[in-house]
Specification:
Strand content: 5-15%
Number of domains: 2
Helix content: 25-40%
Order of helices and strands: EHEEHEEHHH
Amino acid sequence: MPKKPTMFEYDGDEITHLALDPDDGIVKCWVLGTDATYIKDWKELKNWPVEIPVAFRSMVNRKVVKACEEQGRKFFYIDTGYLGNRQKRKVYHRVVVNGMQHSNFKEVPDDRFEYLINNEGLSYLRFPGWKKKGGPILLVTPSEKPCKFYGITRDQWVEETIHTLQQIQIEQ
């Protein structure tokens, strides 16, 4: 077992998970479910064995992501999901392992999604299907936070996306 840092107090239990931001209600729930130990800020990660993962929330935590990537530390990024969060109080959240967006998709049963649509008042989420006959394409641009995180401006994103769509249309 790796030696624990001496600057922290322990109750003798093994530390298996770290978390940032004790004031965040969603992180508090994560800590309750994982028995994580709070650390003050991302700079303290260097004092912990890289085998211990860390959980955090908010896209403004670029320094946490960078530190984890440099250390080879697993991290859990928690974000407010888009699904069903039209109201002020956000109910649904997503957790991404070692990233900010899910990029590896797999086929799964639709029972949970169907439950949300049929029992939670989220019928507006039902997908009507793709339109196959030409027409305009609506681009929904990212907000400032993700643009800043990924080091791109909104104008650059629009330009690159339009260029990509034009290439797809040429290939078809």
